[in-house]
Design goal:
- This protein is mainly alpha-helical.
- Helices cover 83% and strands 0% of the residues.
- Helix 1 (2-28) packs across helix 2, helix 1 (2-28) runs antiparallel to helix 3 and helix 2 (36-58) crosses helix 3.
- The longest helix has 27 residues, at 2-28.
- The radius of gyration is 14 Å and the shape is elongated.
- The N and C termini lie close together (7 Å).
Amino acid sequence: MIKIYLIIIGVISFIAFISYGVDKRKSKKNKWRTPEKVLLSLGFFGGALGAIMGMKLFRHKTKHWYFWVINILGLLWQIALGVWIYISF
């Protein structure tokens, strides 16, 4: 069960990471951007690790406090759920 959870978290984190990179590139070229609610949702609902890594590596959305709060809260509940799954199953 924990393997499935880690795969799901890994896939969503990868998508979040790529999304931050693509959005950063588009912001430099003044093209259509990924909505903030999409980036925040990816981080909160499973991709917090990828979102935080994307923020740091691409230096994207790092000055917006709410991105840090949402992604850190997402990371905390994702870790807690992982621990619960590991202990319970």
